[in-house]
């Protein structure tokens, strides 16, 4: 029995051209290929749509077209994409065949082109005996998106994040006991759900691993379905075990830059105990992503632009803040004027300037100067000598020495500063803590009138040296 499995149509005003071109092709291909049943495994719309929206009308047209050729099962997808109740309208759009909407956890049997749903999550023994007797063409185990708010209310907020997988695994195991009986009676079994399989790969090549995903492959195969049709992940991928198959068809079209692989729908062949699926590619739009770790290479862009007609192009680059003006956006737009769409993205890296990292941690001026010289690759010895001279020498004497050396010419300048008299104290002794200067200041103030103060440099006059002049 042949199934046409579509997923993630994402009809919306922004996606209308892509969604409708790809889905209309897929519907026509499935009809021409002789598919017996159509399955849409969630996210038919991208968000809430008004009744008069062209996107909703286009989607309804294709669903009605499909229902005129085969029975169609539609599954409730992500609530943000398909607000609850959105699919109820599509149940009224059936043509020759029914369009049942799977918006609750249940099992659904297809008997002579008509769908019959279980009263509970799985068929009861009485229902099972009844359906096995009439030999349905297929029995679906439908598991739509679970409302995590309701789950949190029943198991608690702390368990809702990681407990969803356990709850769904328990249901799939219960459904597996029923599906084993159906398969033993020669009836096909198919699972349909919408969610993330732990370990699957997204359309951008990212592996989804964690404890908050809905399914594990073990739980899905324990449902004992011949084929399990999934939606939500936009990249086509399959897993096989003992002839049974679990698969994503991926999105019907290409909706984001950087998506990997072909886009399309899956054509399934399902028999009791075995299943196979083949991807049928749709005419999805082609996207070119060009990334530069620096300014764009205009020569390379010009080469790529020659083959970019009717394609969607994204150009990304990153530059330092001081070089941001070297990129000519208008020239890039001119190169890709023939493309179907162009998106340019620049990342400007801010310039980080460190004046002297760690200098504020030094407790003495000598230490701060030594740290600065180390970071600036400057010889510290001459500067340290001059700092000692400033701290302990007479200001007028130092100035007079400098003027005398300049007047005598460069050839007579000493190669090193004059040596300090042996009686001059060291810098550490001069630059004491400001609190220790109070007593010294009082003594200077109490000096007799007429004392010559010009040649005496008090520690208080050097307070400015204690400031963190080189702090970052």
What does this structure look like?
The protein is of the alpha/beta class. The chain has 3 domains: 280 residues, Purple Acid Phosphatase, chain A, domain 2 (4-Layer Sandwich); 63 residues; 108 residues, no CATH class. It contains 13 helices and 16 strands. The strands form 3 sheets. The protein has a 7-stranded mixed beta sheet with strand order 6-5-7-8-9-11-10. Helix 4 packs across helix 5.
Mass-distribution shape: elongated
Q: What pattern of helices and strands is seen along the backbone?
A: EHEHEEEEHEHHEHEEEEEEHEHEHHHHH
| Structural class determined from secondary elements | alpha/beta
User: For the record, what is the CATH homologous superfamily label of the largest domain?
Assistant: Metallo-dependent phosphatases
The percent range for strand residues is 15-25%
- Global Rg: 39 Å
- What is the top-level CATH class of the largest domain? Alpha Beta
Mean pLDDT: 83
Helices, by number, come to 13
The span between the termini is 74 Å
Instruction: Please indicate the count of domains.
Output: 3
Largest sheet: 7 strands, mixed
In percent, how helical is the residue content? Answer: 25-40%
What is the fold-level CATH name, i.e. the topology of the largest domain? Purple Acid Phosphatase, chain A, domain 2
Strand order of the largest sheet: 6-5-7-8-9-11-10
Low-confidence stretches: 422-462
What is the name of the CATH architecture of the largest domain? 4-Layer Sandwich
By DSSP, the count of extended strands is: 16
């Amino acid at each position: 029995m042949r199934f046409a499995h579509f997923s993630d149509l994402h009809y919306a005003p922004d996606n209308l051209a892509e969604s409708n071109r790809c889905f209309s092709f897929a519907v026509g291909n499935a009809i021409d290929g002789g598919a017996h049943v159509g399955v849409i495994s969630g996210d038919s719309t991208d968000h809430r749509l008004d009744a008069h929206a062209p996107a909703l009308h286009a989607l309804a047209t294709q669903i009605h077209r499909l229902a005129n050729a085969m029975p169609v099962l539609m599954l409730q997808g992500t609530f943000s994409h398909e607000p609850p109740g959105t699919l109820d309208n599509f149940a009224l759009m059936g043509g020759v065949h029914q369009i049942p909407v799977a918006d609750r956890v249940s099992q659904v049997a297809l008997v002579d082109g008509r769908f019959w749903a279980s009263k509970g999550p799985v068929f009861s023994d009485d229902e099972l005996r009844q359906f096995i007797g009439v030999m349905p063409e297929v029995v679906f185990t439908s598991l739509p998106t679970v409302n995590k708010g309701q789950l949190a209310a029943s198991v608690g907020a702390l368990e809702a994040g990681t407990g969803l997988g356990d709850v769904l695994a328990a249901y799939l195991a219960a459904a597996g006991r029923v599906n084993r009986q159906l398969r033993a009676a020669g009836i096909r079994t198919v699972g349909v759900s919408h969610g993330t399989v732990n370990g699957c790969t997204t359309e951008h090549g990212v592996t989804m691993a964690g404890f908050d995903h809905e399914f594990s492959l073990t739980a899905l195969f324990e449902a004992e379905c011949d084929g399990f049709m999934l939606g939500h992940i936009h990249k086509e991928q399959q897993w096989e075990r003992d002839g049974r198959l679990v698969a994503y068809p991926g999105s019907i079209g290409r909706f984001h830059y950087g998506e990997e692989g072909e886009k399309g729908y899956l054509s399934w062949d399902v028999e009791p105990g075995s299943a196979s699926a083949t991807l049928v590619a749709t005419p999805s739009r082609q996207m070119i992503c060009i990334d530069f770790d620096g300014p764009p290479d205009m020569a390379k862009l010009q080469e790529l632009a020659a083959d970019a007609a009717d394609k969607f192009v994204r150009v990304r680059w990153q530059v330092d803040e001081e070089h941001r003006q070297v990129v000519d956006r208008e020239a890039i737009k001119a190169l890709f004027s023939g493309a179907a769409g162009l998106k340019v993205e620049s990342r400007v890296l801010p310039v980080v300037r460190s004046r002297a990292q760690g200098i504020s941690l030094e407790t003495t001026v000598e230490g701060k100067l030594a740290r600065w010289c180390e970071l600036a690759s400057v010889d510290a010895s001459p500067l340290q000598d001059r700092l000692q001279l400033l701290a302990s020498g007479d200001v007028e004497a130092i100035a007079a020495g400098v003027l005398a050396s300049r007047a005598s010419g460069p050839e007579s300048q000493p190669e090193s500063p004059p040596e300090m008299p042996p009686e001059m104290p060291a810098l550490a002794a001069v630059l004491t803590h400001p609190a220790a200067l109070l007593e010294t200041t009082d003594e200077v103030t109490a000096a007799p009138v007429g004392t010559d103060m010009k040649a005496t440099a008090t520690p208080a006059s050097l307070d400015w040296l204690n400031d963190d002049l080189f702090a970052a």
